[in-house]
From TrEMBL:
Residue numbers annotated as active site: 70
Keyword Mitochondrion: no
Gene behind this protein: sprT
Protein name per UniProt: Protein SprT
Residues holding Zn(2+): 69, 73
Transmembrane segments: none
Length: 165
């Protein structure tokens, strides 16, 4: 998997170098990205991170569009500096002029949302109102943090119920 993607990163750099007639330092490339983002460019560290799950599920478009998108961020930063907009005219120039690709800001890959547990808290004033807490907030309550109802100012209490969303 990384071989094709790394080859595409290199091809994008070679295209940019031919277009701008100058060399660019190669980035560190990692596959340590999860969640909804397909790729991220860390400008000051000259690093690219890609989502291996979205790459596996959308490899053709990912190689063509996503890799060029992220490389274009690094190239724009190196050419024009830190004060440019992330998807501004400089980045768009590189996407259109160098890579001959549409400057799409976001991908349209199907992202499977992971299921999360919600811990149901209740208030004394509103028996029908429930307050779903994340696992992190629930853990903070277990450590002594208190959360209060905005209406009656009493402490929210764990109902013992949990649901998966």
């Amino acid at each position: 998997m990384p071989e094709l993607l790394n080859a595409r990163v290199e091809a994008c750099y070679q295209q940019a170098e031919a277009f701008f007639k100058r060399r660019f330092p190669r980035p560190e490339v990692s596959f340590q990205l999860r969640g909804q983002k397909a790729g991220v460019a860390h400008l000051t560290e000259n690093k690219l991170r890609f989502n291996p799950q979205l790459y596996r599920e959308n490899s053709e478009d990912f190689l063509k569009q996503t890799v060029a998108h992220e490389v274009a961020h690094l190239i724009a930063h190196q050419l024009f500096g830190a004060k440019i907009q992330p998807h501004g005219e400089e980045w768009q120039l590189i996407m259109r002029g160098v890579y001959e690709l549409p400057p799409h800001r976001c991908h349209s890959y199907d992202v499977k949302r992971r299921r999360v547990s919600r811990y149901i808290y209740l208030c004394a004033c509103a028996e029908n109102d429930e307050f779903p807490f994340s696992a992190q907030r629930h853990a903070l309550v277990a450590k002594g943090r208190r959360y209060y109802c905005r209406r009656c100012k009493t402490t929210l209490v764990f109902s013992g119920q949990q649901r998966v969303e």
